[in-house]
Amino acid sequence: MTTDERFAGTVEDQFPAEPRGVVNEIVEGPVSDYATDFDHHGAEWVADPYPIMDDLRDRCPVAHTDRYGGAWLPTRHDDVAAIAYDTERFSSRSIILGNTRPPLDIAPQGIAPPISSDPPFHHGARRVLLPAFAPQAIAKLEPGTRDYCNELLDALDGRDVVDAAVDFAQHIPVRVIAEMLGFPREDADLFRTFVHDVLEGVNDPLEVRFPKMVALFEYLTAQIHDHLDNPRDDLTTYLIDAEMDGQKLSPDHIGGTMALLLLAGIDTTWSAIGSSLWHLARTPADRERVVAEPDLLPTAMEELLRAYAPVTMARLVKEDMDWNGCPMKADDWILLSFPAANRDPELFEAPDQVIIDREVNRHSAFGLGVHRCLGSHLARMELRIALETWLARFPDFSLADPDAITWSPGQVRGPRHLPLAINRTAG
Amino acid sequence: MRVHVDQDLCQGHGRCYSLAPELFEPDEIGNGVELNAGVVPPDQEDAARKAVLNCPERAIVIEEDAL
Predict the structure, then answer these.
(1) Does residue A270 contact residue A410 with C-beta atoms inside 8 Å?
(2) CB contact under 8 A, B58 and A362
(3) Is B56 on the interface with A (CB under 8 A)?
(4) What are A343-361's pLDDT values in tens digits?
(5) CA-based radius of gyration for chain A
(6) What domains, with CATH codes, occur in chain A?
(7) Which end is more exposed in chain B, N or C (fewer Cβ atoms within 10 Å of the end residue's Cβ)?
(8) For A276-303, what is each residue's pLDDT tens digit?
(9) What is the pLDDT of residues A29-63, one digit of tens each?
């Protein structure tokens, strides 16, 4: 058995006995006006946020809400980009907009480095991970991902209606990241529960959220100990052995990064796959074209990522300031909507149209600046393989029951139920 | 024509080496770097422009040859 003094303590040593941070009053109920009272968990927003974004871009263009203790929502690409680039005045101390501001002293590392980190700590924490997520490393995962997608499709054999979100999309990123981290495949359901707890439960009170976070970190700590006892060629052992500025990483750094790697790629990629299939199911001309011209798929994928960008980030304002006429206060949230930026007519011609052979596509589905999605090459590989294998198996499909489609609320948008009718007479 | 990736601006989105693999390649962290000192063969000029127009960080510059 390996002894590593960094991990001699218990999970409780890493967590305060009581949750810390500033909790605001939880405001629920219908939104009066999205310009002054927006809620990214509001029913209209969850059903179809794009007309609301377009309206706010014309009217505001930075919306505000008193919910969540105060938050701003820029809707123009240039404003989203300016905030993403401005790590001096906007902190990533928390990137999930909720009713709790984590304490100031967790910066610059934050709870899940490097996504929650600010410079200069951020640079080193990200540099540790980048080679493992560079395209050369990701390419090695492609054959296994293709085999797994085909296994999932084999299991749909003989069915005329399948739920593309539940039966297909949701499984792919879970399997891939579990393999990368060296976690048991059979814990897949648990990982999806963690994602739901962390990302969608933001209106739960802290006493409900906190034990769920502790459960996540207990699981990760058990995995760390398993890897200390049995080191292997995976990301968990890599992180245990990794160094930053000549020092091994602290246990909370390792645990936080593992939480990030486990959770950040799951519902995001699942959403991108689901939204892409949703679009192709309801747009026969586009579906027929990518089936007939497989070389077009990478270009089409970028357009689907632009139009249905799954991920919105958050920032916290560091100090009181006037920002482009907005009286921002310290610890106000910023909802950093890359989906809204991707629909800005200043940057994109006909932004509300999906043009699958769009040649000029400077979209920001994976963010902008130093926090560019670390897993973007992995996500693109999974999305491409998922679509290639699906389209090869099911070239003809349509929405089976539009009313049964459900969309996730909050900062990651994608279909959670997507019944598709498979036409097996095709081909 | 020559292309150059400004490493202060590049964040490793990888659009350049996906769209123009004969002109760019990823380094070990996934940032784009130009191949062949950035010299663009005539049949790759469209690919070079496409890479520029799809870089989310506007990190690629084209230098046209002097006439």
Answers:
(1) no
(2) yes
(3) yes
(4) 999 999 999 999 999 999 9
(5) 21
(6) 5-422 (1.10.630.10)
(7) C
(8) 999 999 999 999 999 999 999 999 999 9
(9) 999 999 999 999 999 999 999 999 999 999 999 99
| Residue of A311, A377, A381 to mutate, testing the B interface (most B Cβ within 10 Å of its Cβ) | A377
Alpha-carbon distance B39 to nearest alpha carbon in chain A (angstroms): 22
Q: Any idea which of A23-32, A34-43, A221-230, B13-22 has the lowest mean pLDDT?
A: A23-32
Residue A197 vs residues A177, A181, A215, B61: alpha-carbon distances, Å: 18, 20, 10, 44
ipTM of the complex: 0.96
Give the tokens for residue A243.
């160094």
DSSP per residue over A151-193, as a string?
HHHHTTTT-SEEEIIIIIITHHHHHHHHHHHT--GGGHHHHHH
Residue A330: CB atoms within 10 Å: 13
E strand or H helix at A413: none
What does the alpha-carbon distance between residue A261 and residue A114 come to, in Å, rounded to a whole number?
10
Please check whether residue A139 touches B, CB under 8 A: no
What DSSP line would sit under A129-141, residue for residue? HHHHHSHHHHHTT
CA dihedral for A260, A43, A275, A402, sign (positive or negative): positive
CB contact under 8 A, A360 and B11: no
Measured between alpha carbons, how far is A169 from A273 in angstroms, rounded to an integer?
6
| Among A199, A229, A217, CA closest to A255 | A217
Cis peptide, bond prior to residue A114, ω within 30 of zero: yes
Give the C-alpha separation, A187 to A193, whole Å.
Answer: 10
Number of domains in chain B: 1
Tell if the CB–CB gap between B29 and A134 is shorter than 8 Å. Answer: yes
Please report the number of interchain residue pairs, chain A to chain B, with beta-carbon separation below 8 angstroms: 50
Given a contact cutoff of 8 angstroms between Cβ atoms, the answer to whether A65 and A41 are in contact is no
Instruction: Answer yes or no: are the C-beta atoms of A269 and A383 closer than 8 Å.
Output: yes
What type of residue is A285?
A
DSSP SS3 for A208: helix
- The domain containing residue B54 runs over which residues? 2-63
